[in-house]
Amino acid sequence: MNAPTQRPHLCIIGATSAIAQATARLYAADGATxxxxxxQQSRLExxxxxxxxxxxxxxxxxxxDVNRVDDHEALLDAAWRSLGPVDVVCIAxxxxxxxxACDQDVACTLETxxxxxxxxxxxxxxxxxxxxxxxxxxxxxxxxxxGERGRRANYTxxxxxxxxxxxxxxxxxxxxxxxxxxxxxKPGPVRTPLTDALRKNFLFVExxxxxxxxxxxxxxxxxxxxxxxxxxxxxAVVRSLPEAVTKRIGL
Length: 251
Fold this sequence. Notes:
The protein has 251 residues and is an alpha/beta fold. The chain is built from 9 helices and 7 strands; from the N terminus they run βαβαβαβααβαβαβαα. The longest helix is centred in the middle third of the chain and has 29 residues, at 106-134.
């Protein structure tokens, strides 16, 4: 078994997202080495400069549209060449199309499923086999509390996140005996560019709070984490509501 490195080697997919950046900054203070994946070179370079200034050991930027699943193998080859054994892979990319747009446009619905579910699951299939081969590592994947209950306001987004959550549950069971950890991260609403169009309320939190929770969850090898913590209780209540009630109240 290859032991985890003292200064962790991280591959972050969707590295320009606000939550990914908040998480990466905490690892940078540990002297971590990064392989960052995103769609825009200029934004990746800005994140890389920030992490380097905060103490990162080294940072490599890699431009890739992960919706093109045929490009995944080359992406992962590059990550393993750059980092050697990879200690943590964090998948943080995603898309939140407005539900009314998905209701009227099949392409919008499929784009949401592709960005949030299909591309993520395709990556996980390949990542799982690489992690088994090196016999250590953590796959940390950001899903959402929205994946626990189909709601009128965002059921397409919720379905895409729910598919990933269920996939991770089975994958965690498969990889456990190989020494590979799978961490399912379920944030509530966060103030990020992804939610710019949404009306804000007291439940919205800043990306730094979610990043700190992800950092702790990976280090403590948590299987499933709700961020912030109180979403575990909120979702227990939401899941318990009968559908005969939720469809009438418009939940």
